[in-house]
């Protein structure tokens, strides 16, 4: 196998999230699709077969134990061996999640997906009513079918996350979408800011001022709805609007959240087995048919640049240059350089402020978890498990604790009371009258 001629860093970061487009086949025709997926009966002959995909699942599990693995597409439910791949991922200790348009998610299909070991489903829903969603997705009735899919997933006991891509047409729908997410019993609601790649290159991104205003409204929406996780994706400016520098957190945002994850704690795999830093950075880092995943992740020069170099222009001199750093995909799309300045950001550092200093990386003592606490953690949906664990680990380390107990988890729980739809109480020792670790059925 060819080697990438670059020494491995002393400690490469461990991926927390992997997105895998397992097929280009789709039953919709979304005008903003970054993969430019096609409506057809059969996938490409070059798409990975089951044996090759199973080998890659093993490589992911070895590189990133416990990571969330998102099976996406195209439409992943059109891949016949999806349940086999989900079962292999879950059996390898990964948290497999299905990223779907929801239209094919019937009750029986949702049950099979859950039985295979899926940790949840992410369903795209781009407006609070059918008109815009159906127009964007290219098929009449797609909105109603997605809602039916979400309801069937909930009835099957699968945690549901809703996600919407924002445009000028639907950005005033965010509060209504949050209402809809809560009515469906969703664990979380993600708002994606368009990066103009694939078929999305023909659409118009939000103007910078609208981007900033919408992001501020999303942050307020999260503060107003503590029972629903509300997040902006492909929007690293959120940490600046929150006033959170690298390593700082608050009751809604972990100290590491917000900044661009591409090539740092996240990568994408294409239907043909190629690796890129994220879905919106199309640079091919390697082919998993010929190069081991670990070698690509630890040694590729492109990833070394993303992890070690500061961006150019105002991003490189900003007082949030580490905690935000701008969107690297937008920089590449506009300037042809992944480390150029982010063209969408309106912020200018006040002249009296210095550029943000590089965070001091201190080796943090590992905090142990008692078996009961670990068991409780594993019963929380993968959508929120990593964030919850990171917050508790950070707090316990600051306080000098050596072990996390169930009582400590209760004392420092997040403000969420529907962490796992349809599962009943999450705590083996619930406090009287304490709703925070309880769940409800819908």
The proportion of residues in beta strands is 5-15%
Widest sheet: strand order? 9-8-7-6-5-4-1-10-11-12
Would you report the number of β strands?
14
Structural class by SSE content: alpha/beta
Radius of gyration from the CA trace?
A: 21 Å
pLDDT < 50 runs, ≥5 residues = 198-203, 415-442
Mean pLDDT: 83
Shape, per Cα inertia axes: globular
Tally of alpha and pi helices: 15
Provide the succession of SSEs: EEEHEHEHEHHEHEHEHEEEHHHHEHHEH
Please give the share of residues in helix: 25-40%
Query: How would you sum up the major sheet?
Result: 10 strands, mixed
Give the termini separation: 52 Å
Describe this structure in words.
The protein has 442 residues and is α/β, with parallel strands linked by helices. The chain is built from 15 helices and 14 strands. It has helices spanning 50-63, 82-91, 107-116, 130-137, 142-155, 174-183, 208-224, 238-242, 293-299, 301-308, 313-316, 328-335, 371-378, 382-398, 406-411; strands at residues 17-21, 25-26, 38-39, 68-72, 95-100, 120-124, 160-166, 188-193, 229-233, 266-269, 274-276, 286-287, 368-369, 403-404. The chain has a ten-stranded mixed β-sheet, sandwiched between helices. A two-stranded parallel ribbon has the order 2-3. α1 runs parallel beside α2 (82-91). The radius of gyration is 21 Å and the shape is globular. The relative contact order is 0.11. The model is unreliable at 198-203 and 415-442 (pLDDT under 50).
